């Protein structure tokens, strides 16, 4: 299996990836094909696919924020069960991130990720691949060491229509297991940077940010 980076919408593998995203994610979570041009060309956004026999079997997108010394996993897609795609993507992603961090003379502080909470909303549909089931994905993140940030999270729709997507938790994977809270300043700065691309964020998102700015820390809880 090959860990292959996509940097252009003209890449034949990107068409396969986009079709895979449409098959496993709700429409509001998938950018239109042409809107991927700039993100793919951004050197700080890393989109990799797991390729075998010229077929895209899985994918992951992530980024490293040098000034924060944290990473963000945008998504991980497993397109077929029983091939070890999940561990392959996770290990290759971590190796790649560690190389980026080492170039800056640091050790990664941690990694953010968003995860659906099927215990809040029970009608999510993620295609027919069982590893993409929200319950399974949530348990996988828990086993990897991710923890849930204890505040009501508002996720802006990637349709950039000003709508919010509910039933999602913002999580964090601390490299040091002893870390049980995060400075709110880090969370706010990260969220403002991450969602800069969306010009039409819901009012509830701004309210969430204002509420976070009134406190100093947020507790990390089990997923």
Describe this structure in words.
With 223 residues, this protein is an alpha+beta fold. Helix content is 31%, strand content 27%. The strands form two sheets. It has a nine-stranded mixed beta sheet, sandwiched between helices. The chain has a two-stranded antiparallel ribbon with strand order 7-8. The model has no long low-confidence stretch (mean pLDDT 91).
Quick gist of this model?
By secondary structure, this protein is of the alpha+beta class. It has six helices and eleven strands. The model has no long low-confidence stretch (mean pLDDT 91).
What's the pLDDT, averaged over the residues? 91
How far is the N terminus from the C terminus? Answer: 31 Å
Number of domains: 1
Gyration radius from CA atoms, angstroms: 17 Å
What profile does the largest beta sheet have?
9 strands, mixed
CATH topology name: Aminopeptidase
